[in-house]
Amino acid sequence: xxxxxxxxxxxxxxxxxxxxxxxxxxxxxxxxxxxxVSPSAAQNFLDDFKKSIINEKRVxxxxxxxxxxxxxxxxxxxxxxxxxQQQDFYFKSIxxxxxxxxxxxxxxxxxxxxxxxxxxxxxxxxxxxxxxxxNKIRKVTHVVKxxxxxxxxxxxTLKNSDRIKGLSKIGVNRVSMGCQTFDPEILKICNRSHTxxxxxxIITELNExxxxxxxxxxxxxxxxxxxxxxxxxxxxxxIKPSAVEYIRHEIVNPLAIEIYKKNPELVVKDEDLFQMxxxxxxxxxKQGYEQNGYFTGKKFWEYRYHWLKEMPIIAFGSRxxxxxxxxxxDKHENISIYTKLIxxxxxxxxxxAFLSKSDQMFRYLFLGLQFKKGMSLIKFxxxxxxxxxxxxxxxxxxxxxxxxxRIKENHISLTDIGAFFVEDVCDFIIDFALKLxxxxxxxxxxxxxxxxxxx
Length: 455
Ligand code: SF4
Hints:
Largest sheet: 7 strands, parallel
Low-confidence stretches: 449-455
Shape: globular
Mean pLDDT: 91
Strand content: 15-25%
CATH architecture of the domain at 31-219 and 294-308: Alpha-Beta Horseshoe
CATH class of the domain at 31-219 and 294-308: Alpha Beta
Radius of gyration: 21 Å
Structural class: alpha/beta
Number of helices: 19
Strand order of the largest sheet: 9-8-7-6-5-2-10
CATH topology of the domain at 31-219 and 294-308: pyruvate-formate lyase- activating enzyme
Number of strands: 16
Bound molecules: iron/sulfur cluster
């Protein structure tokens, strides 16, 4: 049971409500660090990236497939509308992009630990397309035998059992579906349709094929109430997906803003949203689901586990972001520029950021705190030759004042309160790091990045 006084203190001092910040897959996001990359310099940046992962044995591969059938009001990834001709062209570009990267020797002596198809709706591409991409990856790098291969999927694309069987056949072993809610009224407002029975059927079929499943859910959707969230949770308990991920609805989509302008009563007030976050985190904890701040292992979402451990991510596709410990590389977000550059054999890199030693230390803490065990002080010292308690003394003091972190057994970890509001703690850390750099720097909303990439 959390101490109510401490919870109130946190609400007053940390809670960011539905502001668009680090609510979705939190990573240390410093938009001001990115510099634009001209086509003539792209190869040099790719070479720098290659050097930055030279000592890494394993990598994660992310494939961005940003096409959807319609736009959901809660969407923050701004996909393109499905279009067979454009998608065929895009698919060919992805295949060629993998080759362009492989030709630089990026994958030499490396193994691929996980492959993740994100979007958009990756299943708006055929199983044949997804298989061809997996096969291309297998050609340029050794994919480990036990590799986790995930695709995100709109539930409506999995209506047909053969589609799911086909995914299993091509090696996909985990499917992540966005549901966000099962409340028909809210789904209608959000321009979204799926049924409880439809989702149940998909989860049953995935289970039969020994595939892992994840359902994405949201708190703070237009017109959502605690009562409606509780009903969602009852349904989830019945459906029993392998994993559930609950995030806060960030009000970034122009469609959502339009709806709220016309119907301000649909906006969930911060006070209610705070209770919703509390409710969803308590429920996740009770159900034993992995959640940021409490992440324990790689069983249900291996890709995320290795990401938090800073395994490099090599990302393909327009908007996709690659990470190493010291660099972030974003591909061009304009699809036509992206495909044209690939056509000319130029790496389609649009912007790039180098992380200073201080940024790297903050990122290490930021990602480490999302594990239940926290960040190891010993490993920090080994990597940076610095004492984390000295480096982060002021930050630790502030977080301790609100009972968000603790130092125990050579680890800095989140307390229960800190873990419940991990995204707000992460926002606080970014603000803190920015202030150290310059008083005038402000945290950029993640949507400035989400037009470039979420994963
Ligand atoms: S929420 Fe998912 S399905 Fe809906 S538009 Fe965005 S990416 Fe597409």
